[in-house]
Amino acid sequence: MADSLNIVVLAGGISHERDVSLRSGRRAADALSAAGHSVTLRDPDASLLPFLTETRPDVVFLALHGSSGEDGALIDLLEAAGIPFVGSPSEAARLAWSKPVAASLVRRAGLAVPEQIVLSHEAFRELGAASVLRVVADSFDGDVVIKPGSGGSAQGVSIVSDDGSLPRAMVDAFTYSDVAIIEQRIVGTEIAVAIIEVDGEPITLPAVEIEPVSGVYSFEARYNAGETTFYAPSRLSDEDAARASDAALAVHSLLGLRDLSRVDFIVDDEGVPWFLEVNVLPGLTETSSLPLALDADSRSAAEVYSALANAAAARKAR
């Protein structure tokens, strides 16, 4: 076993995903403690930076969701303070945090990305909501997905089947971000592919197939027991699963991610994985796909999180 580390797990924050982050943080802290580390669970509040600079923990383990930890700002400060952490560098986090930016980079790399229109709240107001929505309605055939330009846990996401529902869906998206994405809905099998780095090399875990009881993978479906059936590993064919795995690794590398990530896809009837979004700090709750994938791969969360923490400490030592 590696040496015991002094680890600070950061969870909570003031984002819309605070409660989910707290659940992730508690499970991460329990797993790291089980691996023999000394763990402190902290909220990123005004006392955090003085605490970190005074105590100089061996590693910070980020279990933050939403802008509290995924937009790159806090990571920038950790890097500036020379405090090692588990997670992606700040530049990579910023690229992934902006869903339109990530989608553009992934599309330019040749991967399948749904057709999109990206609108700022300012443009939506200045150009006139009615006129904008008329163009949107005429631009897509079939259902569309409207979602915030940043954030996670499906907050502010709507599936729209008729033009009359567009205004409400736009309002919901703008509640969570100043940018909204209108995206062609891809019909198929929804999967999440988690990536962990082992000895510095990224590997994919078995894809987790997501089948919500309601048909929509909403916030409630993600975190309430019984609302979603998860298949880990997925029921995809070996060929389709391999194609999704390769696409996830390409996204992880393209954006410069590190340690762990999760890439979400819809796999259509032809086996094409359509990129939806990437998460640099995946959920670690009991219903989150990364822990489910670890179980499917017969890997212990305690061992994996501990190995990631030790790798982060080694980066600092170098």
Key features?
single chain; 318 residues; alpha+beta; Rossmann fold; D-amino Acid Aminotransferase, Chain A, domain 1; Dna Ligase, domain 1; 4-stranded parallel β-sheet; 23% strand
Describe the structure.
With 318 residues, this protein is of the alpha+beta class. It is 41% helix and 23% strand. The strands form 3 sheets. Strands 9, 10, 11, 12, 13 and 14 form a 6-stranded antiparallel β-sheet that branches. A 4-stranded parallel β-sheet has the order 2-1-3-4, with helices on one face. Strands 5-8-6-7 form a 4-stranded antiparallel β-sheet.
Summarize the entry for a quick read.
The chain has 318 residues and is an alpha+beta fold. The protein has helices at 18-34, 48-55, 67-70, 73-81, 90-97, 99-108, 121-126, 129-139, 166-176, 219-223, 238-254, 289-296, 301-317; strands at residues 6-10, 38-42, 59-62, 85-86, 116-120, 144-148, 158-160, 179-184, 189-198, 201-204, 208-212, 228-231, 260-267, 273-279.
